[in-house]
């Protein structure tokens, strides 16, 4: 039970902590000053959303996101949100590919070397199907989470930052809703693809609460650190590097590798959602569909990493608010319909 629950928890976190999140760019886009309450609300809403999505997938024994989506948004809106999820997964995976290129540039490699490397690794990952993604998440995510948290805490103590000094200033609390909504749509796609692999409701609770708690704590500490370097963020494509410049080259290299793995796991989750949906129409191995999808995506990476996040993420955060509302109220309207 615990093993399976942690496996799903790492899948959820791996889906969420990508180029936008791990780099700090996504957090800064939504939060920033006066956002402590917003992050606490995000952790709660995120946990509820994960539990509901997994519960529906478990009941439907789903192999892709469509049966889950049909229950959550209703039959009439399913086609609209099916297209929206597909476009979201496509565009955010493009962001991950661009993020890999930007990470490579930080070490003076060609942008296209970074994009090409992650593209090849993604195709190879799906030679093993879904199990390839689950396996790599179980190994990579604990190292990534511990490393990121260690750097953020080290920066907090080195700079003598106060973690709870601004709790009387919480005017940005509404940011919790679009930020959670932004991260809900890929979770429907990814968790919908493994509904038939969930074996008990206890796994669902462990995964939902665990992922919300971990992401809430890291988000709060990360955002608190970014507030201290707000002026420097303007000149950094990846805000995390503004924190890492205070430390040795070894630390910079280690965290850059971890950042790349965060990008990789989220890109892999996005590809999983796409290719399992496509496979319901095109019955070929997953890696073949992954190869085709990535070839189509690569030209779109020319828009740049921070530009893609600045425009795409806020738009989806707003559009997904209806889905978030349905997830939060699911126990009420579902029980009413089945009564």
TrEMBL record:
Matching InterPro entries: YkvI-like
Membrane-traversing stretches: 38-58, 79-100, 106-127, 139-157, 177-195, 204-222, 249-274, 286-305, 311-333
Keyword vocabulary terms for this entry: Membrane, Transmembrane, Transmembrane helix
Xref: PANTHER family: CONSERVED MEMBRANE PROTEIN, MEMBRANE PROTEIN
Protein name as it appears in the record: Membrane protein YkvI
């Amino acid at each position: 039970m615990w093993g399976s629950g942690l496996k799903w928890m790492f899948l959820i976190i791996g889906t969420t902590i990508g180029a936008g999140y791990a780099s700090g760019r996504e957090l800064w886009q939504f939060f920033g000053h006066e956002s402590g309450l917003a992050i606490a609300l995000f952790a709660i809403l995120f946990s509820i959303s994960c539990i509901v999505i997994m519960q529906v997938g478990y009941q439907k024994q789903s192999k892709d996101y469509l049966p889950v989506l049909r229950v959550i948004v209703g039959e009439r809106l399913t086609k609209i949100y099916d297209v929206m999820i597909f476009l979201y997964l496509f565009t955010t995976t493009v962001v991950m590919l661009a993020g890999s290129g930007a990470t490579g540039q930080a070490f003076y490699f060609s942008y296209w070397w970074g994009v090409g490397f992650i593209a090849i690794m993604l195709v190879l990952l799906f030679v093993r199907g879904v199990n390839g993604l689950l396996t790599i998440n179980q190994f990579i995510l604990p190292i990534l989470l511990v490393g990121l948290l260690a750097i953020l805490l080290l920066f907090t103590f080195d700079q003598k930052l106060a973690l709870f000094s601004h709790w009387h200033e919480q005017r940005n609390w509404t940011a919790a809703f679009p930020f959670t909504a932004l991260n809900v749509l890929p979770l429907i796609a990814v968790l919908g693809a493994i509904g038939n692999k969930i074996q008990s409701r206890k796994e669902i609770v462990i995964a939902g609460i665990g992922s919300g708690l971990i992401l809430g704590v890291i988000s709060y500490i990360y955002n608190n650190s970014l507030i201290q370097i707000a002026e420097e963020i303007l000149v950094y494509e990846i805000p995390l590097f503004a924190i890492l410049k205070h430390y040795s080259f070894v630390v910079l290299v280690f965290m850059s590798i971890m950042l790349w793995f965060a990008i990789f796991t989220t890109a892999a989750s996005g590809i999983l959602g796409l290719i399992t949906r496509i496979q319901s129409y095109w019955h070929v191995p997953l890696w073949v569909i992954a190869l085709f999808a990535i070839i189509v995506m690569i030209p779109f990476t020319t828009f740049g990493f921070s530009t893609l996040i600045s425009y795409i993420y806020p738009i989806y955060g707003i559009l997904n608010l209806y889905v978030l509302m349905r997830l939060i109220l699911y126990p009420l309207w579902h029980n009413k319909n089945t009564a």
